[in-house]
Specification:
CATH superfamily of chain B: Folate-binding superfamily
Order of helices and strands of chain B: EEEHEEEH
Distance between the termini of chain B: 33 Å
Distance between the termini of chain A: 94 Å
Structural class of chain B: alpha+beta
Number of strands of chain A: 48
Strand content of chain B: 25-35%
CATH class of chain B: Alpha Beta
CATH topology of the domain at 162-290 and 436-466 in chain A: FAD/NAD(P)-binding domain
Oligomer: heterodimer
């Protein structure tokens, strides 16, 4: 087939030919074509099958409102389902397939659904697949999913890159039709920073589709000249192929630029699409209008389309959808299509007008009547017309243009709760008064449907937005026809007449929904799915509303519209993700000695975006437990080293630093001596434990506070809140130094001996006792900090150096520690040792526990105010029998004590009502040779030695346990002080 | 949204963290006889107005200022932005 339907010249470059394929067949088109225009040029009207009934479908429109002509574009990983053929720009080598069919497009086996249409009406899922419930997931849904739905995914990673960008301007103009171009010329010539965005690949809007003249030039030529002038202005940014998808708060607009969608593959280094965030002071919405169809029996056959689309295909693409065309209209605009097509030599079978006073023509027949039915299995062949006098006529035609009037494109005016208002002259909704701040609407979007109205409306809107004074420039003369319409939505008595072709919703469905009591427009939408497809009902919602209004005996404005929400057109998830995918989805934070840990073969775990070494497997160790047990035993026997850089660090300085810590910690800090460190427990204002850590006093007015890894940010935010909002006059400054210092725990009986080899000062037990802290130097002069604190329960230190020296320090520790068999240990061994020692951590400070629960109730100082103190004294948090932290061990050393399991009385029933407590942290203790756990138990501190049942019905655990002290190792703390 | 920071000028709201009602500044006197009731009200009883609302925002990806922002919860219009520290002082908070 060789483009048999090309008619004359247009805005398509016939000097170049593009090859493309559709359903395996090769065709030719030209630059400037869309996939739909090129297929129509080649005589292909059938482009897809419908969603539910698998009816043959062709394009309804020539733009982004398209419900029908959805194809799978490209192949392999770039395959993209549900692409509108009407907007897909043709490129050489384009590969497309029809979708939603079983077998070939012409012989879709699932078209049998059409025969069962009586059963597949509105609410069909709800009514049919009620029972048995188990069948839904296993039987009904898989079958329905296979039969319904649209295109398929490649299931491969998208190989292309998507980007995000930010733009600022004085005036954003949305839509480059006559109104938008006029606004842009006015604002651009006045020197304003202008962005002109249009979803099409050719600016000009309807001017490219019409034969109107503006002054001495054709509309399309006028548009091209205007675009050329705008392109020459440095203050104007032209953004074609850019859809403004949403109007957000404070003049922020989202826009998707399809940078490379019109190419086979993106150019090297170029993204496929860019999501722009546009910050603008003012906006002119010049989004135009969308024509609506008329519903009648079998109005969905390929070849039946909007009259304006037929005009676009003819005037812009030099394509006749067929050589014999009929028109069905309720307004003057439909007659334009007949005139334009006639001028291009297309035979007009007739113009059918519902109005008795329709304009007549010398060139073709105008009939007063209605199209009541059509014929043609895979494409329109005949239209049946019922004339006003009751007689019937059969029109021989392969294309039928429908014109039911125009709907101003109010979508973006409603993104900030705005509601459109009804305009009876246009029989359409127009923008309401409550527009997004800074927005003006112009042209057809405002209801000014004439070219002259659009040109002057655009210019006025730009002048108003920018506050331009002086005489308005004279505009060229242009078409200024009044709108002459008689509202007409559907043909009386029709039933299988499609309103929403994408979701297969018919007039009958809307009537049924009304009959079953769905009277709100939002209910109608959800019950019938009218307007819920990817086109969001751009061509169908109004018809549904009109029928609903008629059935309910209301007016259309009384029924109202559903709410318009972003995005305006379907938007790829990829462009929302931008570069934030896979490893870039969220940042990974690496400690200074990460590379060293990698060299040791460490297994890493993610903690608050940090990668921490979890354990360091040695050759021959086949399980993680083998590595962890070894690390624990070696540390307790001699010395181990662990990277603790990730703990949050906050530097607190100022004459009120101690008073500030007194405020944020429930325990006292005012009397802490310089050179000493203290454990601190931070409460939320409601008395629940928030975080814990240590504060080291390096000077009278200088503390270093540590937080847990995961809470570093929230704790810092909280500290700033207390400082700025509660204690604004305290002389205290905070800064997060988490990333400024690399810090290592050196733990075990030989830790002092190891550190003495690198620390320049005396750190003997007398000179540097338990809980001491100080500034030191190491290795002959490098500044460092030393803290004698212990999480493991051993003689232990934490040593900190500036980040740049972290890697070197770790290597040095390993080097000088060789004689003590120093062992690096990871977070698992760290966890085992803290459970053995009975230290609370994140599992215990879980957002529900109080200081009392943690056994630290007496730490809350009565002598001073602190955050959380007052509410921690509440009766409900201090009741008899409250949870207390305890240790738990199995009676049979072979049994597990898993975290999450619940404690029940030894002789009591096992149910939630008799729950006694639960396990928070559990591990295998290589020192004790059995599992141990920490947990909370009602009245726990009074129940040491009690035998209980530990149950986890989900994991089928049921063991006998004994309640013990949480301090499994060295309860007297002799090792710490050694 | 765009927040007109008193020190830094207009900044995108994505740089901020939200905390809610700015009455959190008015922490009750812990030594008052009614402290228990006062703190209960302070901690748990908040208005949730459909309309103008003074609320706390933290410039987390910026200068770490806490701000008091007067925002209309229906329209997201922002009428006033102040440093929380100034607001706290004006309401009598000190050390």
């Amino acid at each position: 087939m060789t483009q048999s339907n090309r008619i004359g010249r247009a805005q398509v470059d016939f000097t170049k030919t593009l090859k493309f394929s559709f359903d395996g067949k090769s065709y030719a088109g030209h630059p400037g074509d869309t996939l739909a225009s090129a297929l129509l040029a080649n005589g292909v009207r059938l482009m897809g099958r419908s969603f539910k009934y698998h009816r043959p479908r062709g394009p309804l429109s020539a733009g982004s409102e398209e419900p029908n002509a959805l194809v799978e574009l490209r192949s392999g990983a770039r395959q993209e389902p549900n692409t509108r053929a009407t907007t897909a720009e043709l490129f050489d080598g384009l590969f497309a397939k029809s979708q939603n069919r079983l077998g070939s497009l012409k012989f879709d086996l699932l078209s049998i659904n059409d025969r069962f249409a009586n059963f597949l009406t509105a609410g069909f899922y709800y009514k049919t697949f009620m029972w048995p419930a188990a069948f839904w997931e296993k039987l009904y849904e898989p079958i329905i999913r296979k039969a319904a739905g649209l295109g398929s995914l490649s299931l491969k990673d998208d190989p292309d890159v998507y980007d995000k960008g930010f733009l600022h301007c004085d005036l954003l103009i949305i839509g480059a039709g006559p109104a938008g171009l006029s606004a842009a010329l006015t604002a651009g010539r006045a020197g304003a920073d202008v962005i002109l965005a249009d979803e099409d690949f050719r600016m000009g809007g309807r001017l490219n589709s019409e034969t109107f003249a503006i002054g001495d030039a054709s509309g399309a030529d006028w548009a091209a000249t205007a675009v050329a002038e705008l392109a020459s202005l440095p203050n104007v940014r032209l953004m074609k192929r850019t859809t403004v998808i949403g109007a957000f708060d404070h003049g922020i607009y989202g826009a998707v630029e399809r940078v490379s969608d019109h190419m086979h593959t993106p150019d090297a280094g170029k993204p496929r699409q860019v999501l722009w965030r546009i910050y603008t002071k003012h906006t002119v919405l010049a989004a135009g209008a969308i024509e609506r169809p008329i519903a009648f029996e079998n109005n969905d056959r390929p070849g039946i389309m909007l009259a304006s689309a037929l005009r676009t295909y003819a005037n812009r693409f030099a394509v006749a959808a067929d050589r014999r065309v009929a028109i069905f209209t309720n307004n003057d605009d439909g007659h334009r299509t007949a005139a334009d097509l006639h001028a291009r030599g297309v035979k007009i079978a007739a113009v059918v007008d519902v109005r008795p006073n329709a304009p007549s023509s010398m060139d073709y027949e105008v009939l007063h009547g209605q199209v009541v039915d059509t014929k043609g299995r895979l494409g329109l062949t005949f239209a049946e017309v019922k004339l006003a006098d009751g007689s019937m006529r059969t029109l021989d035609c392969g294309a039928l243009g429908l014109s039911g009037g125009w709907n101003p494109n109010v979508h973006l005016t409603c993104h900030q709760r705005g509601r459109p208002t009804w305009n009876a002259d246009l029989a359409a909704f127009v923008p309401g008064a409550d527009l997004p701040a800074g927005m003006t609407v112009a042209g057809a979007a405002q209801g000014d449907l004439s070219t002259a109205g659009a040109l002057s409306g655009g210019a006025k809107a730009a002048r108003q937005a920018l506050g331009l004074k002086g005489r308005m420039a004279t505009l060229s003369e242009a078409e200024d026809a009044p709108v002459n319409i008689t509202p007409f939505w559907y043909v009386e008595g029709c039933s299988r007449a499609w309103l929403d072709q994408q979701n297969d919703v018919t007039v009958k469905d809307v009537k049924l929904s009304h009959q079953e009591g769905f009277r709100s427009v939002e209910h109608l939408k959800r019950y019938t799915t009218l307007g819920m497809a990817t086109d969001q009902g751009k061509t169908s919602n109004m018809g549904g509303l009109a029928i609903m209004a008629e059935l309910a005996g209301k007016t259309i404005p009384e029924v109202g519209t559903t709410i318009f929400r972003p995005p305006y057109t379907p938007t790829a998830i990829g462009v929302f993700a931008g570069r934030h995918r896979e490893q870039e989805f969220h940042p990974k934070r690496l400690t200074p000695s990460h590379k060293w840990a990698e060299e040791q073969g460490a297994v890493f775990v993610e903690v608050g975006n940090w990668l921490r070494a979890q354990w360091f497997p040695l050759p021959g160790e086949t399980t993680w437990r083998a590595s962890v047990d070894r690390e624990v035993l070696a540390t307790r026997k001699s010395v181990g080293v662990c990277d603790v850089t990730t703990l949050g660090k906050v530097d607190v300085q100022g004459t009120d630093a101690a008073a500030f810590l007194n405020k944020i910690y429930c325990n006292g800090f005012a009397k802490l001596a310089v050179g000493k460190t203290r454990y601190g427990l931070m409460l939320r204002e409601d008395g629940i434990a928030m975080d814990d850590g240590t504060a080291a006093r390096l000077a009278e007015d200088h503390f270093v506070v540590t937080t847990t890894t995961a809470n570093a940010l929230p704790v810092y935010r909280h500290m700033e809140f207390v400082r700025q909002c509660l204690c604004p006059d305290m002389d205290v400054q905070l800064i997060s130094t988490t990333e400024a210092w690399a810090q290592y725990a050196v733990a075990g009986p030989n830790s002092r001996k190891l550190l003495e080899k690198i620390v320049d000062q005396d750190i003997s037990n007398d000179a540097f006792p338990f809980m001491a802290c100080t500034n030191i130097t190491i290795c002959g002069g490098l500044r460092a900090r030393l803290f004698r604190i212990s999480f493991s329960g051993e003689l232990a230190y934490e040593i900190a150096v500036p980040t740049a020296y972290g890697d070197a320090l770790m290597r040095k520790i390993i080097e000088v520690g060789a004689e003590f068999d120093v062992t690096p240990y990871g977070t698992e061994a760290l966890g085992v040792m803290r459970i053995e020692k009975g230290h609370a951590a994140g599992n215990e400070l879980n957002g529900t526990t109080t200081a009392q629960n943690l056994g630290m109730g007496r730490m809350i100082s009565k002598l001073k105010d602190s955050i959380g103190k007052t509410l921690s004294q509440r009766e409900g948090l201090n009741a008899d029998g409250d949870l207390r932290q305890v240790g738990i061990k199995p009676v049979d050393p072979g049994d597990p004590v898993p975290a999450g399991a619940h404690l029940m009385n030894a002789d009591g029933p096992i149910d939630a009502a008799h729950d006694q407590g639960y396990v928070t942290s559990a591990c295998y203790s290589p020192n004790l040779g059995h599992a141990i756990a920490l947990g909370f138990l009602k009245n726990g501190s009074e129940r040491l030695g009690e035998r209980m049942q530990l149950v986890s019905p989900l994991t089928k655990v049921h063991v006998d346990v004994e309640i013990t002290s949480a301090h499994f190792i060295d309860p007297e703390g002799e090792r710490l002080r050694a | 949204m765009i927040i007109d920071h008193p020190l830094l000028g207009p900044r995108d709201s994505a740089e901020f963290t939200y905390m809610g009602d700015a009455r959190l500044i008015d922490r009750p006197d812990p030594d008052a006889g009614t402290a228990a009731q006062d703190f209960y009200e302070y901690g748990y009883l908040r208005d949730n107005p459909a309309g103008w609302h003074d609320e706390l925002w933290f410039h987390e990806a910026g200068d770490r200022s806490w701000l008091v922002i007067t925002r209309n919860t229906l329209t997201h219009e922002i009428s006033k932005v102040q440093l929380a520290r100034d607001v706290a002082r004006s309401r009598g908070r000190s050390k």
